[in-house]
């Protein structure tokens, strides 16, 4: 049974969906296998902040009744079932699930219980997906390593001494470790794509406005987007399809139809590869930033060569304002965060000090409840918005943001289908390597931030290994082009289906399940001691 369970959890979402429909196994069996893996590895990986086994079992039982009923009613009914029915999904711990904890990785929200379901939670429930629990993250999604979680770091299953990326590192590690085929993250400057790259999975940041953020803890409202993690592009597309679309409770969610093409990505490798022919891709030269590891650059250039060999044309292009992406992001995002985080006053949410007068209670609550990175952002943002500096910093950053967007628009107008770039300049780094120097942490997202600044969709897909660690290839598209981007991703998967690295699993997965091994927090402490 253990061997079978280990095999079962390695299936992709679409394979498992087919197995459920055929009655090869039940959703309860599937969910038990995933829960067992998540529970076994959580000491060694710390990907999960909560595992909701009772709720998951109930949802699996409900999914099984729908499956049994549909099998009785015949193939047409069976085929019409939602693609996620009975399949486990991991939620970043900033998604509201009614009655469940929602810490956003922060002490200040410890003990807070969400009073309602987020829009995407409702959607996932309606689709019959099984919510397994909530995953670890950098506090309020500020970070690139998940080391800023108030509840301790998450390890990367490829090397337990290294970070999984961030801020959605828990979801990325969980999907890479086969705890679920589907995961949800949020991406404000790279927090889905960068951890997807560092953990060797697929992660997509959709177009700004594609997915309703109702019920999601806000970081920077003009940048935040919810998106899918999966181990292949078809699964990422199915998950995006399930959660996307207009919702009246989030005025920034756009009334743009969600393409059914997301559910129709080619199943056969031949068809998928064929779709690459004639595609026009741009390779932005500014994305090969200083400090990029040679192994990362090599894998990305090999991927470009493979796409060309499959019939795509790739031209070098320029996005001249790329170099301002980081500086403008670190004005705009902290400014918006400082406003969004003003609501954590200790009165309305989570824990709060009650032993003094109102002002000293609030100061004590925020002083104790927020971690150092969050405080840094609140100070940066408050400063940038203050009278006298607003025009010099915030307004100027918004103007540069328009220029960054215009760089991309020129390329879409010139007929490019998508851009190909690295996702992260480096592979996963060791615990502590970037903690002492915030700017080195911020540079982790140099290749992803401009995409958020322009509101565009971007996806990171695995493209091989460097020093035994995963490298991500980023595909960036025009607004609302998610289906086209995932079709390209699917094509790349098809032309590399036989590559040796495709068959490899995270190399330290077995160690993660060994209870005698140190926890991620102990590993981080040991590395800090050695430094
Ligand atoms: N690493 C970036 C930051 O710290 C992006 C985080 C994110 O996308 N949520 O702000």
In spatial order, strands of the major sheet run 1-3-2-4-6-5-10-11-9-7-8
The whole-number mean of residue pLDDT values reads: 96
Categorize the overall geometry: globular
What CATH architecture label of the largest domain applies?
Alpha-Beta Complex
Largest sheet: 11 strands, mixed
Briefly, what CATH class of the largest domain?
Alpha Beta
How many domain modules? 2
Q: What percentage of amino acids are in beta strands? A: 5-15%
Please state the structural category. alpha/beta
Helix content bin: 40-55%
Poorly predicted regions are: none
3D structure, described in words:
The protein has 531 residues and is of the alpha/beta class. It folds into two domains: 2-257 and 269-324 and 401-503 and 513-530, Amidase signature (AS) enzymes, CATH 3.90.1300; 326-396, no CATH class. It is 42% helix and 12% strand. The chain contains 20 helices and eleven strands. It has helices at residues 2-8, 13-22, 27-45, 53-73, 75-79, 119-126, 169-176, 193-199, 233-243, 269-274, 294-309, 325-340, 358-369, 372-385, 390-413, 438-442, 449-453, 482-495, 509-512, 520-530; strands at residues 48-51, 88-92, 130-135, 182-187, 202-205, 225-230, 280-284, 313-317, 418-422, 458-466, 469-476. Strands 1-3-2-4-6-5-10-11-9-7-8 form an eleven-stranded mixed sheet, sandwiched between helices. A hairpin with a 2-residue loop joins strand 10 and strand 11. Helix 3 (27-45) packs antiparallel against helix 4 and helix 12 (325-340) crosses helix 15 (390-413). The chain is globular and about 65 Å long. The N and C termini lie far apart (44 Å). Glutamine is lined by residues 141-144, 167, 187-191, 219, 333, 445.
């Amino acid at each position: 049974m253990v061997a079978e369970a280990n095999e079962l959890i390695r299936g992709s979402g679409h394979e498992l969906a087919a197995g459920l429909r055929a009655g090869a196994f039940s959703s309860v069996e599937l969910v038990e296998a995933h829960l067992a893996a998540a529970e076994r590895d959580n000491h060694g990986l710390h990907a999960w902040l909560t595992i909701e086994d009772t709720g998951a079992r109930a949802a699996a039982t409900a999914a099984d009744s729908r499956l049994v009923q549909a099998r009785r009613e015949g193939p047409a009914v069976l085929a019409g079932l939602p693609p996620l029915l009975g399949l486990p999904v991991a939620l970043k711990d900033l998604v509201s699930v009614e009655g469940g904890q929602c810490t956003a990785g922060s002490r200040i929200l410890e003990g807070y219980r969400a009073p309602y379901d987020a829009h995407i939670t409702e959607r996932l429930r309606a689709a019959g997906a099984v919510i397994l629990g909530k995953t670890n993250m950098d506090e309020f999604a500020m970070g690139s390593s998940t080391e800023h979680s108030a509840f301790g770091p998450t390890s990367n299953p490829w090397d337990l001494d290294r970070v999984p990326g961030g801020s959605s590192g828990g979801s990325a590690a969980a999907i890479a470790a086969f705890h679920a085929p589907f995961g949800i993250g949020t991406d404000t400057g790279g927090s889905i794509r960068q951890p997807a790259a560092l953990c060797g999975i697929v992660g997509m940041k959709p177009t700004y406005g594609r997915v309703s953020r109702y019920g999601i803890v806000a970081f920077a409202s003009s940048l935040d987007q919810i998106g899918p993690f999966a181990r292949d592009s078809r699964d990422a597309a199915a998950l995006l399809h399930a959660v996307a679309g207009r919702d009246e409770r989030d005025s920034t969610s756009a009334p743009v139809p969600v393409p059914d093409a997301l559910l129709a990505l080619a199943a056969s490798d031949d068809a998928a590869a064929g779709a690459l022919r004639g595609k026009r891709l741009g390779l932005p030269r500014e994305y090969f930033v200083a400090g990029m590891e040679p192994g990362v650059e090599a894998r990305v250039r090999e991927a470009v060569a493979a796409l060309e060999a499959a019939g795509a044309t790739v031209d070098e292009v320029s996005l001249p304002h790329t170099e301002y992406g980081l500086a403008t992001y670190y004005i705009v995002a902290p400014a918006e965060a400082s406003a969004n985080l003003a609501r954590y006053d200790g009165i309305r949410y989570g824990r709060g000090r009650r032993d003094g007068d109102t002002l000293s209670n609030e100061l004590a609550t925020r002083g104790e409840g927020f971690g150092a990175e969050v405080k840094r952002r609140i100070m940066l943002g408050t400063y940038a918005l203050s009278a006298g500096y607003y025009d010099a910093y915030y307004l100027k950053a918004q103007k540069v943001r328009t220029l960054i967007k215009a760089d991309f628009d020129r390329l879409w107008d010139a007929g490019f289908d998508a851009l190909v770039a690295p996702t992260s300049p480096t592979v996963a780094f060791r615990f502590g390597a970037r903690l002492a120097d915030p700017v080195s942490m911020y540079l982790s997202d140099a290749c992803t931030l401009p995409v958020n600044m322009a509101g565009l969709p971007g996806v990171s897909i695995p493209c091989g290994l460097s020093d035994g660690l995963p490298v991500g290839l980023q595909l960036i598209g025009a607004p609302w082009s998610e289906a086209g981007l995932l079709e390209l991703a699917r094509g790349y998967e098809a032309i590399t289906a036989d590559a040796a690295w495709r068959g490899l699993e995270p190399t330290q997965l077995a160690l993660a399940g060994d209870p005698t091994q140190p926890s991620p927090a102990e590993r981080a402490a040991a590395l800090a001691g050695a430094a």
